Amino acid sequence: MAKLKPKSFNDIYDGDSIYNLEQAVEIVKKTSHVKFDESVDLAINLNVDPRHAEENIRVSTSLPKGTGKKVVLLVLAQGEKVQEALDAGADYCGNKEYLDKIKSGWVDVDKIIATPDMMAELGKLGKILGPKGLMPNPKSGTVTTNVAKAVSDQKSGMVELRVEKTGIIHTVCGKVSFDSKDLVDNIRQIYSTLLKSRPPSVKGQFLEKISISSSMGPGVKVNINSIG
User: Fold this and answer.
1) Local structure of 156: helix, strand or coil
2) Domain that holds residue 110
3) Domains in the chain: how many in total?
4) How does 138-149 read in b/e, with b if 16+ C-beta sit within 10 Å?
5) CA atoms within 13 Å, Cβ hemisphere of 215
6) pLDDT profile of the chain (228 residues), mean per 10
7) Do 35 and 145 belong together in one domain?
């Protein structure tokens, strides 16, 4: 598929229009104009107030077609769990030595998984890990005794859907190089997961707006009714 230069976006794209999911995906692929394989991102506006605990959405889901991104994982564990994590494909695994490295400023990983017994010490590093989104959390499946499954899930395309203070969730759903159908499948999985997480306190429409874009491309509004 030929890539368009930014000046020709208007030939196929109207920023004020709302497109069916399949159309939106095609537009994102066509308007990708850079030389690298961009991520495809979703922005989802939810009708929630994150200040209320039950409306502070934070769930995870595995994308059926993966994210297209290599995930570098650190597992903090002890005893036999260390080898279990390494056998499952963790890039780094250990305990005190990695806690010391993090204290010194080392955070060259995409995700951190921890067993529950490591959280007391890890919690002391919240000021380092929190701002980078690296603090493990049971809701996201990154605090667990089943480290093998957690590593496998993260490596195969697990994404975290976490609402921001503004009520918006930003998440990746694949790469521009993916087949359109694969991107559609991933987006539908994200949509389904969010619907299941709807808090009982929410009245009216839960998902208010959805837009899709490549990393460097324009946002394309998606008709929510075309996703389910």
Assistant:
1) helix
2) 73-153
3) 2
4) eebbbbbeebbe
5) 11
6) 54 86 95 90 96 92 92 96 96 96 94 96 93 89 94 90 95 96 97 96 94 93 94
7) no
